[in-house]
Model the fold of this input.
Amino acid sequence: MTRSLSTLLLCLVSLAPLASLADNTPKTAGTLSSTAGKTETPQEATAPSSAPPAGFPVNPMKTLQPLMTQKHYVEAIKEANRYLNMDSHNGEVLFVKAQALSALNRNDEAISVLENLTEVAPEMATPYNNLAALYAQKGRLDDARKMLEMAIQIQPNYSTALENLGDIYLAKAKEVYNKAIKESPKSKSLKKKLSTLSNLE
Done:
């Protein structure tokens, strides 16, 4: 069955991982649900930044990770904001806050946090992947492609970003072929290509 472009993009969003920012090696991908895409195994991360300010916990993930695992997203955001008031450039905490916002469908806010994170920690590939997933949900395929290309430039073997980029190309191809077939509805060549793309899903 041919999936619509919107369905494909929804699957892309489900690929956004809760992963270590300090370790860019792709984690083992697993099935999130029978209808969702792949996600990476959550792990506690070691902050890539310099020494935190006085009073900042050595590992805020010990508090934040359980809240995310238990789906207490509102509480996770409150805790993240508390930590960010002490260290506004902590990449781990920003990343978790973005994930919690996304889980609550507060995607515009999640995008804002991730955009900030790519400036705070431009060497980290994972935030670019997650930002691409959120851009894709909004139909911003070109922006999503650019973010995924950045993630792959940073980490060429990042399998999740590579798969997402393939899905973006697939979505773009279907979008163009669907426009073309409206102009040439009897074209056997276009119908064959659309069928081939559908089989790839």
